[in-house]
């Protein structure tokens, strides 16, 4: 993903092509109404450990200022038309990218000509996970960029506090298998693992 002229403002940034645009898709969810889907997605996001809730642009910039490139967090958007914003450290400093929710799907905000080609998701955490995994692959094949354009990598989340060992364990289990219900584990433990089926 690339951004043109990043700044600290919580505004919509233009996403460059870069191979990130794919047909709509996303994780399956049980939620049926928009409110249920948002509530379920926000529940997953709170369990992630890197959702910061209400935070100003300047507070996000301060948190990310000394972080390595690719460090990111998710916070409430200061713009009334959007629920959430990703704040991420780039080579030019911290910048922001909104998450759009429309017709039951989440996707990154972008310029109109690109927006319809961006991948869509039923879950915010699934959206983040997709771009984290894509960033790991794309960083190996870094291409030169036009003037005043920087790569935007989502590499490592900035946690609100150190996650529990149990949370790290369930992420490790989910990285190894997607057949949690076939594991010889108590049902309660299986439920804990599957309530956050992500790798990030």
UniProtKB/TrEMBL annotation:
GO cellular component, alphabetical, reads: cytoplasm; phosphatidylinositol 3-kinase complex
Q: Which PROSITE patterns match?
A: SH2 (PS50001), SOCS (PS50225)
Q: Where in the cell is it found?
A: Cytoplasm
- Gene Ontology MF annotations: 1-phosphatidylinositol-3-kinase regulator activity
GO terms for biological process, alphabetical: intracellular signal transduction; negative regulation of signal transduction; phosphatidylinositol phosphate biosynthetic process; protein ubiquitination
Ordered alphabetically, the record's keywords are: Cytoplasm, Growth regulation, Isopeptide bond, Phosphoprotein, SH2 domain, Signal transduction inhibitor, Ubl conjugation, Ubl conjugation pathway
Region Disordered, annotated ranges: 1-32
* Pathways per UniProt: Protein modification; protein ubiquitination
Presence of the UniProt keyword Transcription regulation in the record: no
What residue stretches are annotated with the SOCS box domain?
153-199
Q: Which residues form the SH2 domain?
A: 50-131
Q: Which InterPro entries match?
A: SH2 (IPR000980), SH2_dom_sf (IPR036860), SOCS2_SH2 (IPR035862), SOCS2_SOCS_box (IPR028410), SOCS_box (IPR001496), SOCS_box-like_dom_sf (IPR036036)
Task: Tell me the function of this protein.
Answer: Substrate-recognition component of a cullin-5-RING E3 ubiquitin-protein ligase complex (ECS complex, also named CRL5 complex), which mediates the ubiquitination and subsequent proteasomal degradation of target proteins, such as EPOR and GHR. Specifically recognizes and binds phosphorylated proteins via its SH2 domain, promoting their ubiquitination. The ECS(SOCS2) complex acts as a key regulator of growth hormone receptor (GHR) levels by mediating ubiquitination and degradation of GHR, following GHR phosphorylation by JAK2.
Q: How does it assemble?
A: Substrate-recognition component of the ECS(SOCS2) complex, composed of SOCS2, CUL5, ELOB, ELOC and RNF7/RBX2. Interacts with IGF1R. Interacts with DCUN1D1.
**Per its record, how is this protein called by name?**
Suppressor of cytokine signaling 2
């Amino acid at each position: 993903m690339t951004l043109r002229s990043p700044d600290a403002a919580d505004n919509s940034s233009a996403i460059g092509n870069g191979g990130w645009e794919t047909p709509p898709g996303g994780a399956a969810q049980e939620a049926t109404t928009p409110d249920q889907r948002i509530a379920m997605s926000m529940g997953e996001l709170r369990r992630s450990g890197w959702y910061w809730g209400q935070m100003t642009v300047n507070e996000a910039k301060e948190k990310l200022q000394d972080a390595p490139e690719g460090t990111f967090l998710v916070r409430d958007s200061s713009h009334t038309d959007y629920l959430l914003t990703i704040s991420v450290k780039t080579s030019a400093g911290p910048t922001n990218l909104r998450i759009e929710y429309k017709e039951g799907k989440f996707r990154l905000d972008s310029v109109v000509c690109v927006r319809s080609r961006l991948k869509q998701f039923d879950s915010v955490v699934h959206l983040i996970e997709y771009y984290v995994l894509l960033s790991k692959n794309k960083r190996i094949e870094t291409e030169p960029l036009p003037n005043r354009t920087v790569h935007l990598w989502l590499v490592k989340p900035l946690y609100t506090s150190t996650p529990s060992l149990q949370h790290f364990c369930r992420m490790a289990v989910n990285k190894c298998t997607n057949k949690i219900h076939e594991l010889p584990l108590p049902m309660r433990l299986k439920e804990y693992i599957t309530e956050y089926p992500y790798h990030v």
